[in-house]
Structures are given as C-alpha cells and as structure tokens.
Amino acid sequence: MRLLVTGATGLLGINLSLVAVGQGHQVIGLSHSRNLVNVPFEQLKADLESHDSAIHLIEGAKPEAMIHCAALADLNAAQNAPDKAHQINCDAAGKLAAAASCWGIPFVHISTDAVFDGTTGGYREEDPVNPLSVYAQTKLAGEELVMRMHPDAIIARVVFFGWSVSGDRSLSEFFYNNLRKEKQIQGFTDALFSPLYVEDLADTLLEMLDAGLSGLYHVVSPEHMSKYDFGVHIAQRFGYDPQLIEPVCMKTLSRGAPRSSNLVLNPDKVQRDLGHPLPTVKDGIERFYLRSLEEYPQRLQRYGA
Known about the structure:
By secondary structure, the chain is an alpha/beta fold.
C-alpha cells in the first residue's frame, strides 16, 4: 500500500512511517519544514495551513491511504494561539479528509484522549465529551469535521509514549533523560492515563486499516496508571532510582492550559473488532527498554541530524 503519513517528523509520525516500511508499505512522509536524513521513505514538505497547495502536492503523490498525525499538540501553544490551533487541528483535518473521500481512499485521523474532562474516567466512545483546553476543543472539532467529510474514516483517540527524533518528545523520554542524569523530578499521582507504546500504536493503526474498520475508536492500553507510577516503572526497568521522582498532585500546580486528570479510556471496541487485546502499559515500557538496548533512540536521532 502507498501510504501517506502527515506529521512524519513527530513522535507518532516517524515511528508509524518506519513500522509501515517494515511491513512492506511504500510510505510518503509529509512534514512542515524539517528534513529527515537517510530515512527509508519518501519525504514531502507542505504547510497544512495552506490547504489547497498541500492537497495539490498530496494528490500528486497518489497515496492509497492517509494517516493524519500532524497537529498543534503543545497545549500551551494552542491555548495562546486558538486561531492557529483551529486552522491546523480542525480545518486542515477536514480538508484532508474531504480530499481522501474524493479520491476514494481510506483516511485515519489521530485525535486525543483529552476530549474528556477527566471527572470520571473509563470513557467509552459513546460517552459525552467536554474538552477543557483549546487544544482538546480544536481536536474534537477536527473529529466532527472529519466524520462529516469522510464518513468511512477511522478516528482514533490515542495517547502514547516512545522514542523520538529529538529525544525529548514523550513523557517516557522525560523520565528517562532526567533519571539517567540523577535529577530530581516530579510525577503526578492524580493524572491517570492509558498510554500505548508508540510502535504498538503504529501496528494497531495499520491493522485497523488492513481490517477495513471505520468510525470512532479508543486506541489505548487496556491498563492504566498514574503518571507518577509510570515514571516509577521506567526507573525500575532501567535500573534508576525511583526515589528521584517526587509524587505531587497536578491539581495543586499552575501549568497554563487546563488539563484533565482522569483520562482513562476503554479500548474494548477496538479489541473486539480486531479480535485481540492491545498491549498493556507495562508491555510498552518493556518494549521501550528493549529498543534502547538495540540503539533505536540513536538511530532516530541520526535521522534528525
């Protein structure tokens, strides 16, 4: 399959592109401005805020499916630039979905667990949403627009961790980088989540495409934990001192854009439709650790050199 991946330099985009290549797909990675070096897939550059020119460029690449990973995902940056966030997280997604529908190809839109307000947790796809931040509000608007423009699209609400090109794009890298340097850091005891390791997420998204699924899915781990416990598990697996992580309550700190506390999502629907459970958080931490032994982080960083 000739697969176009937007946001190809990001944490999900680069890992997804590499996993897809490993499965035998022909990948076109679309990014805004950054060039990757010696990657095993085609690269295109386009500004998704210039919708028409970006779509013209993508059409010329003749993709057979699209996975839209690109977003303005920095919560504080989105909070401070709501128009830009809406342009990227909503308008661009809708334009790409409409184009994919016109071309008759599958479209996967990556959304976020943050569309919920975190008052209960255990959220299913049919549960009411209440996004607190501009980022989450624009991602929800993107979901709704994509579904209107491409009714057969997959909309995947996700949360993930892993190794990135820059080495500092995920919570797992935050803990790893600081623990390795024996720095004292904080971990939130009241922030609950269900993250997948990014290569497991990539495998799952490609499996969903191959299975011809459509509609809204929570593509997350069936296991959840606090971000503090997540850091402790990483410390223990890498042999670092978990006492370096100070347990704190997120709600007692001022962190700019509002954040939901309990973002535990229920992945029963995708597990049922794929016919198997998704990996646990601990499974993902183990894979994160094993990839470090294979020097995968260094390989990714060389792509960004």
